[in-house]
Design goal:
Polyamine Oxidase, Chain A, domain 2, 3 domains, seven-stranded mixed sheet, four-stranded parallel sheet, binds flavin-adenine dinucleotide
Length: 412
């Protein structure tokens, strides 16, 4: 029996543990620093709203194959709300203009006018996209896309904030290009918005824990890893706050941790934390919620996206350090913007503001190039959304990196 320790029960760690536990003759031991699994993707009952909410809105697209495969493995595909078309409505808060971004689902749909881009962007979008796809690893989005017209304002800036959690002036172009290659450039079938109306916990985390429990894997919570003992290019022991676990000659470990945790454990510099994501959750009257689409993109304001789940409207402000801009009362401003979008004068029934600090790692080209090698020791592999290779820090990247780390160890 070979024992593999997985440290970190975020989605990368869960994916690694699930993959390893499929292998006969492998015992998986899962360790987690806090008292719950899910890492940066979790749900909880909020007393003020009296609703179960996610720590932050998570949007994926139907081309995110790893997310869909994860849900298939844990039996939650039916909990995903996959939009029938690759279409998202937008509102320009300053000009009051509304439009739809839509990709056709095939040639017939294209011929019927199934392609819609924001007003004023048609001429530059194709050329901008080509430039972005050709951008080198050191280029930012702003360096790759030179124009500052409507396409910048209505497509590239919102995409950079949403996908990279960083403004285009500092975010690396390459991961955005990779997302385009895997989703929007593959057409409508790969670009349908996917939301999780039952929440991140019920859709991604709890059934994964149940599957692992069925295979005899039970996370050890409140077990922060504090150090590694190494000899001869191998890890020989894992040091936790209250105990030390020796690794036998066949044993191995996967560290599915954020960069700041890994920097301490490996004693080497890692990419720094990136920006915060602010989420404002508002419980509203059912008729106000009903006036909103499931997901609405906003430009020219503080708010970037509004998600509707039941009678809660949840707003995302990405790259909060850059976008809050000294705003004295973000909650009041965000509500004014939601009220404008929903066409209501009534105040919210209850609200909750959640700021996820360092929601993703530094998204700059330099930080991405400072990522560590994935096998620092013969029996140690690294995983985490920030280590996926080409993708930005997302659910897709976390799941992909967790499975890749497990497979790398299994392959010797
Ligand atoms: C507000 C917000 C909104 C987001 N929106 C989206 C979105 O719309 N779409 C999308 O795809 N992605 C989104 N993301 C990103 C997505 O949540 C992450 O990419 C993903 O959850 C990262 O998973 P992970 O397992 O790599 O890391 P984490 O979730 O950070 O997991 C790491 C785990 O390691 C544990 N840990 C840390 N240190 C130690 C230690 N020393 N010992 C043991 N355990 C330790 C942590 O407690 C944690 O459980 C968002 C993130 C946030 C915060």
């Amino acid at each position: 029996m070979r024992r593999v320790h997985v440290v970190g029960a975020g989605l990368a760690g869960l994916a690694a543990a699930m993959r390893l536990s499929e292998r006969p003759g492998t015992e998986v031991v899962l360790h987690e620093a806090v008292n719950r699994a899910g890492g940066r993707a979790w749900s909880f009952h909020d007393a003020r709203l009296d609703r179960v909410i996610d720590n932050g809105n998570h949007l994926v697209l139907s081309g995110n194959a790893e997310v869909l495969a994860h849900c298939a493995r844990i039996g939650t595909e039916a909990l995903l709300d996959i939009a029938p078309h690759a279409e998202l409505p937008f509102l320009d808060l300053a000009q009051g203009e509304r439009w739809r971004l839509r990709l056709p689902s095939g040639l017939r749909d294209l011929a019927r006018g199934g392609l819609r881009v924001p007003p004023g962007t048609a001429l530059s979008l194709a050329a901008d996209t080509l430039r972005l796809l050709r951008a080198g690893p050191r280029a930012t989005v702003a360096q790759a896309v030179p124009g500052r017209g409507a396409a910048w304002h209505r497509v590239w800036e919102p995409l950079s904030l949403a996908v990279l959690n960083a403004p285009p002036e500092s975010a690396a172009a390459a991961p955005l290009a990779e997302v385009l290659r895997r989703t929007l450039l593959r057409g409508g079938a790969a670009s349908r918005p996917v939301t999780m109306p039952h929440g991140l916990g019920a859709t991604l985390v709890d059934p994964a824990l149940a599957l692992l429990a069925g295979r005899g894997v039970h996370p050890a919570y409140r077990q922060p890893l504090t150090g590694l003992a190494t000899r001869g290019g191998r890890v020989t022991a894992l040091r936790f706050a209250s105990t030390e676990v020796a690794l036998g000659p066949d044993d191995a470990a996967i560290l599915a941790l954020p960069p700041e945790a890994l920097a301490k454990l490996l004693d080497q510099p890692m990419p720094g934390a990136g920006q915060s994501i602010l989420n404002a959750h508002f419980r509203v009257a059912p008729e106000v919620a009903a006036a909103m689409p499931p997901v609405l993109g906003l430009v020219s304001g503080l708010s970037h996206w509004v998600f509707r789940r039941g009678d809660v409207l949840s707003v995302t402000v990405s790259a909060a350090e850059s976008c809050l801009n000294g705003e004295a009362d973000p909650e009041a401003r965000i509500w004014r913007e939601v009220a404008q979008a929903a066409g209501t004068d009534a105040p919210p029934l209850a609200s909750r503001l959640i700021r996820a600090r360092g929601a993703t790692a530094d998204a700059s080209p330099a930080a991405r190039q400072a990522r560590p090698e994935l096998r620092p020791y013969a029996n140690l592999a690294l995983a985490g959304d920030w280590l996926s290779g080409p993708l930005p820090d997302t659910l897709e990247a976390a799941l992909m990196s967790g499975r890749a780390a497990a497979e790398a160890l299994c392959d010797g």
